[in-house]
Amino acid sequence: MTSSTSPVLKFGLRLLAGPAGAVLVMAATFVAAALIFFAINGREALSLFHEMVMGAFGDGYSFSETLVKTAPILLTALAVALPARLGLISVGGEGQLYLGALFGTGAVLAAVEQPGWLLMPLMLTGAMAGGALWGVIPGLLKTRLGVNETISTLLLNYVGVLLVSFVVHGPWKNPNSLGWPATIEFPEGAILPQFFDTRVHMGLIFGVVAAIVLHILVTRSRWGLGLQVSRSNPRVGTTAGISYERNVLIVMAVGGLLAGLAGIAEASVIQNRLQDGLASGYGMTGFLVAWLAGQNFLRIIPLSVLMGGLLASADSLQLYAQLPKASADILQALLFITVLAVSSLWARRRAA
Amino acid sequence: MEIQLYNITKRFGEVTANDGISLDIRQGEVIALLGENGAGKSTLMKMLFGLYPPDEGSIIINGHETLIDSPQKAMSLGIGMVFQQFNLIPALSVLDNLLLAYPKPPFWTFRRLFGAGAPQRKVLAYLEELAPGLDPNTLVRDLSVGQRQLLELVKVLNLDAKVLILDEPTSVLPPQEAERLWGLIRKLSDAGRSIVLITHKMQDVMACAHRVVVMRSGRLIKTLSREDYNEASLVSLMMGDSNRRSEIDTTPLPEVTGRPPRVLIRNLHAHQGVQSIDDINLNIGAGEILGIAGVSGNGQLLLADALVGLASLTRGEVILDGITLHSASQAPKTSERIAYIPEQPAVNAVAGDLSLTTNVALSHFRQLSFFPAWEPEETLTLNIIHRYQVRPDNPALLAGQLSGGNLQKLVVGRELHGRPDLIVAAYPTMGLDAGAAHDIYQALFAKARDGAAVLWISEDLDDLMAYAHRIAVLQGGQVSGLFDPKTSNRLDIGRAMTGEKKTTTEHIPTPAEAHPRTAS
């Protein structure tokens, strides 16, 4: 008898020891932690959890809202993952996002009379330039002066957010907004295309395409090989003729550019204007997603969708369960801790 | 204290590093553990020192079988080991380094409170005995290699070691300091301590061993007492049939009159961290092997980096075939015309988390297409793997999965394929067994026969004297002497290494002025 059952059992155990098992345990732990969190709040845990899942993926509308939140997470995650491929720890997604929105809006305001075919490219170019600028500055500080990129990107986040705050309270404030700190509404020609009558916009396409292209470049091309070599052993890279400095600037600029696109998409599609609190927290969420995905561009896509779902469901939690909005952050934190703990545990067990 | 190693076997994967070795260590005796690199000497002694457990066999101390599972255990039993790599903190003084290693005062005892008190005197007792002139307040970074080694020895003696294991102690020393060490070893054994001297040098054995144990490829070949051996018999025991030094052809190329040297190093100054080189003027002709001797840490590595284009110059220039390659006015830049075998290739020449094929492709990174085709690279890698017997022979493995020695062979193969114009090789055979070292010398010097200029940095004066056409000695970042190995003797070179006397560099015969020679 045992001889017939043991191979099945063995196979099961082996499966559990692999990545599939890790994902399974992660999911189970997270669900358990979420249920405990709901129970502590004195709610019907299971039904609330059901509500949450439905709020993220339950019907077409909820799923579209999930995808709306996926786009900026995906783009800012890429903005973190690309420098990480060179060993840089950038936390500047948030600031780059704001700078993208700032420069993109600047282009819109400057060319507001122009037709859409001109306005749209101007806006996107402005956004990319703004994001890239906020990536290149820490890059230059790093290569020229040896300033730690984590610190400089972190600090530039504040500068970016406050710059936006400054222009919407000051020079760019819509005079007809009755004191509300925001720019004028974007004209029709400056609103990114959306799909199927939902708020899902071009930003998501940009993100998915960028993730795939970056994945191919980094894993297959000579340039990507250069990044790998420089990260693994900078001295060997220099000997082979790979310019670390140039690559730092490239990855920081491209990363910033992508986050900048996320910023202009938020301003253009979601808010229709530039205003304070444009996208609080997307940059940080993107950072965490990038590290959860192990800087793998393809893995970032589903993880961003999952995280977008979590954020979207927070709205429904507020609505149906009167839980504070902060509960979404708590759930997000629970998910991250679970994933990090389980994956480290698995890695350690594999090493042993 | 009597130690018996009984039937010790140790395997690393498929390699048997020690195969059933039995050995006894008696009180007051100097045992030389003689063998080529890779013979398994260090492995055996690291097991005695508790660094790894034997797979089979036992260690018997004073008649009791003893399990030594950590260096702490070994030290508590009175076994101490001095490694090739020193374990000192350069920024601290001699006294501080000794105090750090001294077991008695607990960490909260501030050294200032000692004053000239008893504990300090105890810590310094051996230092005063072994190196009377050395001020304990000197910073370790200002010590010579020989003094650092002494300090390591004092650390071990402070732990009350009865058995001292010295791992290749003379490999880093210039000839005079080696002699001093031999004297010290004799003195310690007269005082009743046992000493195990791991070495591959005949001079060490002849100078101070009571007994010699010859090892070869993991096996104990023979144990001989003082009266039963001579240098010649030991060489053949140690090498087996692999004494092939004579097969390497280093005949200089005939010099074409009026042809300038391929490489001109003019007035070269550079500094990097604490290392610096000053006013280096050297030239290397086509097919010439210029050996660089010197105690390590005297600017050899910086010179290599400066030639290759990894370190920026503060003054001077490097000219290859009439074209200025590096100069103080331009940012350092590497060139594919230069092959570079850096020291410790496992650390300095490979990316550990990339495959062997990728690592081989790095030598011609600039020629790869944007989406590199990997088949030709894999073929090339397989060729190198077979030619240099890299193990395991799978090009898809990550470099980090190979041992240091195998990576070294891979890097040598990578750098020597194609037709480099200048080859800079820093300690290319360090840590390799005799056969592999021989293959590498053969390949390296064959490139010289093809017309490449070779700059070869080595610590092994015997090898330098055997193969180099000229030897330049680096001392304190400067060329302290330039020698023709056929007409110079070891002691003169040794003096230049320690900077005792500046040798005149006025007339050095170029290889062609001297008689063309076949290897001896």
TrEMBL record, chain A:
Residue intervals passing through the bilayer: 12-40, 95-112, 118-141, 153-172, 200-218, 248-265, 326-347
Keywords noted in UniProt: Cell membrane, Membrane, Transmembrane, Transmembrane helix
Subcellular location: Cell inner membrane
Sample GO molecular function, one term: transmembrane transporter activity
Annotated membrane topology: Multi-pass membrane protein
Cited InterPro entries: ABC_transp_permease (IPR001851)
A Pfam family hit: BPD_transp_2
Gene Ontology CC: plasma membrane
The name this protein goes by in its record: ABC transporter permease
Species for this entry: Marinobacter salinexigens
